[in-house]
Amino acid sequence: MGTQFLYRLTPTRAAMLSEAPTDREADTVARHFAYLEGLTRSGVVHLAGRTDTTDAETFGIVVFSAKDEQEAQERMLADPAVRDGVMSAVLYPFRVALWSEMDEEARR
Prior knowledge:
alpha+beta, Alpha-Beta Plaits, four-stranded antiparallel sheet, 5 helices, 4 strands, about 40% helix, about 30% strand, globular
């Protein structure tokens, strides 16, 4: 898997989740999803998801591999949601201790 990292995402406008997002937010979130989907297909992202809440405690995480912290920082900052200011992110060094070998259908 290489060196692993995690970034924690929080919406910069909490009401984006409890109310309808603006057109700009919706477009950015769609590009954010496509970005992570592409990195997942290429084997860089191992897990991405968010809490199923819509309050101020809501957050998402992305667990991924990078060659070093600089590359990890660059990947996080290239995420459209972070780059466009719709979500803020904090990067953490991370180590997966246990990994299930679930089949692809079970992950959905």
